[in-house]
């Protein structure tokens, strides 16, 4: 029997083409990445809520700036009556009730009562003071609480006075050669007499003495003397406050004239703040579908309500008669995008002409109590940001938080509620990762055993073939 030669170019037994060198970790990562899609979507929603919270905060800031701009115009009006110059002995704030000329002379400045103690060698050593007993003052004829200063240093006594007596300020003054206790009335002037503004009823060895007597402010307006405890004097000239800065040698003539030239500047400041709010509202209510931020836009009926309230400011009737009854009567109009613009109506008098024609009515558009734009903007911002109190039947009151505050809290609650969903997915994905890793480890174990068997069988086959070939 002739022998035949059998050749073999590779292993006869193989485990389905699989090998233990497979990167199972990469496979698991890809599977988990695909399974993470729902959790990633929830996280994207959370991120959108966070962006919306920032937008709400930005809107609140712009509304507050709008309120400040409205208040600035409401304080003076569009065409206020102001002093024609500045003065060395006083400043003037406010808006005069009418144009005119006044004579002003500051006879005396208001001063606070001051007391000072003897000099002591130390501010911290009680023995340097050696005081024993009670310290007590009389303030405008009213007796203060008695302070026991026994065993106290000068600094301790000053602290005790500040903690106990609210009408004065106490401090320790270093003179370079010693220390003195200083006691000063917080308020200038006096309500009874200069002597009674600050007196010591009981002095336990401090040697307190008056170093400056209290003094009321005295100013002459058109020859009429006006006395006040403070250096801020209101109603001496209707509508304005005189802030005294120095005593006058001679009377000063003050002229009040109406300022219409700056009306446009004041109006433009108001319009800029208004338009900033409207621009942000437009961005949220009509987001550009081509931008990635579309999903970050705020969805809420309060935005439409705010937009309506903003637009209503233009046509709200403030004055019941005359040519200027609303803001739109000043040739201020809404544009297509909801922003304000001036002098767009060519068939109407310009803004400047309208203000010049009736400056008092123009002022009232902003300054009128309750119905002026200053008051209306204040109410609008309070509803949106600050919150307000609503009167209920039976004398009860209900606090309603601002719409933006409520929206912020809602968004925060939404983020918190989604945390639970994300935590669930994290646990589930970790469990799935563990299951897949266990399955691949089991597969690798089986493959390892199959490869061992394959190696053995191939070795046995090769041995048999070799033996038969050698016969």
Summarize the structure.
This protein is α+β, with helices and mostly antiparallel strands and 471 residues long. Helix content is 43%, strand content 19%. The chain is built from ten helices and 20 strands.
Describe the protein:
It is a single chain. It is flat, with a radius of gyration of 42 Å. It has 471 residues and is of the alpha+beta class. The chain has three domains: 1-80 and 260-471, no CATH class; 81-109 and 217-258, no CATH class; 114-212. β17 and β18 (340-342) form a beta hairpin. α2 packs antiparallel against α5 (263-285) and α6 runs antiparallel to α9. The strands form six sheets. It has a five-stranded antiparallel beta sheet, with no helix packed on it. Helices cover 43% and strands 19% of the residues.
Radius of gyration: 42 Å
Q: Give the end-to-end Cα distance, rounded to a whole number of Å.
A: 11 Å
Assembly type of the chains comes to single chain
The H/E string reads HHEEEEHEEEHEEEEEEEEEHHEEHHHEEH
Kindly name the structural category.
Answer: alpha+beta
Q: What's the structural domain tally?
A: 3
Helix coverage percent of residues? 40-55%
What does the largest sheet look like? 5 strands, antiparallel
Beta strands, count: 20
Strand order of the largest sheet: 1-16-3-12-13
**Overall mean pLDDT score?**
88
Shape descriptor reads flat
